[in-house]
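If you are new to this repository, start here. Below is one unmodified record pulled from the training split, so you can see the exact layout before writing a loader.
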Amino acid sequence: MFKKAITVFILGFFTVFCSAQQVRPSKSSEIYRDLKTLKNIPKVLYLAAHPDDENTGLLSWLINDQNVETGYLSLTRGDGGQNLLGTEQGAALGLIRTHELLEARKLDGAQQFFTRAIDFGFSKNTTDTFNQWDENTITADVVWVIRKFRPDVIICRFPPTAAAGHGQHAASAVLAEKAFKLAGDKTAFPDQLKYVNVWQPKRLLWNTFRFGSVNTTAENQMKITVGQYDAQLGLGYGELAGLSRSLHKSQGAGTQSVAGIKTEYFSHVDGEPARSTLFDGVAKTWTAKGNTDIDKELDKIISAFNFNQPDLSLPALLVLRKKVMALKDSDLKKDKIKSLNHIILSCAGFMGEVVTNQAEAVAGDQYNFKLNIISRAENPVVLENVKWLNQSENVNRKLSKDSLITIPHDIQIPTDAGLTEPYWLAKPAKDASTFSVPNDTLIGLPEVESPLGVLLDLKIGLEKFQVKLPLSFKKLDPVRGDVVEAIRIVPAVELKFNQPLYLVKENEDLNLSLNFKVNSNKQFSNGKVNLMFNGERLGGGDLKSISGKDFTIDYIIPKAKLASKQSSRLQVDANYVVDGTTYNKKQELIQYPHLPSLQYFTPATVTVMKGDIQTKVQKVAYIEGAGDFIPEFLRIAGIQVDVLKDADFYGNPDGSGGNSSQNKLSQYDAIVLGVRANNTEKKLGRWMPFLWSYVKAGGNLVMQYNTNQDTTVDQLGMYSFNIANKRVTEENASVTFLNPKHKLLNFPNKITSEDFNGWVQERGAYFPDKWDAAYEPLFEMHDTGEEPLQGSTLYAKYGKGNFIYTPLAFFRQLPAGNVGAARLFLNFLSAQKN
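And here is the target side for that same chain:
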């Protein structure tokens, strides 16, 4: 059943919301574009599967040249991809990619939408995809976005065939066609019709493409010329598209800004065929909707617009607003009044913010805030009232032109204020492929407005406006200047274990360190800490009082308790119970320079890997690739890990250092290359001869997977092998041992088929498909119905040492606490000890 999100639908009609932390005026060139967009009625929805699937060149052209309101619907948030920035995977990576999309949209001007679908990683066809995704649920989400956004034209990035190159890509086309037919059917998903009306787009098109050797374009398809130069942007649309797409930094999607025109091709899928333009047969103007007077008013405003004094348009815009408010078409009115309100405030040069110097706040506590507002219009803006969350204040003050007004006020955060976190992560996922959403009417939104905001009642001329300013944190950064971000609501007490997982051997007690972070000035006493597994208390203790803001307490889980648990992987949960309240959350904070601070919460849990996990190495060197967890895992396993840099190969810059590089490398039991090191470490080319010499002299080199895109080294191994886009996506695919007696499968851990149980997301990707006879493959595996693959691990003896190339997904398995994967990886590191 659809549950209503009241703030979205009641306040959204009259209130100017701020998607950022300040209400700021647009540039006059942006106001001018928005006015031309206000004049156009059509809308376009672009639809694909993942962040970075969108055709940013076409989006930029639609918005800036055609002045058509355009949105991008990405079915997923990119949760199953890989991360070139850091170690975040899964939901955390999806949160990063959500905001990278939002940053991209700020550049190209499109709106952004999502469904509840979770990106579970690469799939090879739609059958595989819909074995994971519930087709009806995701179809309902697409229908909801169509009914809410009301596009006239829907454009797919991919076809529903193997030419899409990815099962989720093809599934996006299947869902688009299905939703296109159902969005206008009142018998389809009737619960949605309490909040939106049915909507039938005019047509569904496929934006055909040339990707590498795959060419789906044809000269008999409809063609459109895009990429033109826009003097107001100082860029061509292809150049703008490159800047927009390059914000997908976590997936290394940096794209050239290409000047000059190009041709986009479109194939008809459903609806009324287009003859010459995307909008054939679509009502394009207000006149076509029976509102000729609005068309005329807009023509006058646009022709008279003064880029240096946009406030001169205010009188005419206020007259226009009355006409729009009088529309009988409620859907059209709701669409356009939001844009018009923003245009009017921008023309008035209005800026508003409510800021404090606290980045984090606790429900029930009080903080000092400042309301800063200013207008730059000759005709005064009047601040009539301010509603400070829990009280209202009559002000009735004119804002003098270009004069900042500051009003200090103490604000108590409501005691029932929720934690600041993405709405789709606030509850456990419905299943492995679908997020849970607390209010169904939130479906589609990239994020939700903070419920914590100050409401301003403004009057411009005779028209009244309500502006909501979110509670924000503001600081001066010596490098970045002013930083303004959402204030983050956190628990009064947070718990987290001091390391993400623990390894414990048989017949050993488990020593755990639990960190407490106190965010409130409230006093806590006579509390109790519980360490739980599947509802059973394994340990903990009384905590008479909490002192200090951050402290750690060590706890022991006795070996007898651990021995009674049959599983080799335990999830131990921690909670602190005091005054009838249970605290059991830990903050996850993501901070990258190109994004705002991102916060979500996870249960205070830790993975305990128990059993026979042996290693014979003491000192390992690591060459960083794309961020992964393996160095931290090795340190937790008691191994010294040194990250290699230039000086380790060439000596110190001043020429000191004594021993040669070869002697320095020889101290390591193994050297490991991080995932995609050949794609990310541009110094690898000059390091490889040293690594080969290290192996030849008796070293052990373990190389994880690389792709063929943007490579540094042509030949990674001492003997040649060819990396292909071969993969096993079924994480439970059966594994055949090609030589069960091989030393890598027997020392120091005896590897059996059980060690391949419980893997997550995939077995591995980018397997070699050809290799020199000097290599010995260790395993054979394949997805259902496909040919067996033997390239998941290659071993070769070189000189006195060992070389191992393994595209198995250890970077996913070790953070997940998979004991079998840990045993196998430690065998690889120990190859030279046998």
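Two things worth knowing about this chain: The chain has 19 helices and 44 strands. The longest strand covers residues 463-477.
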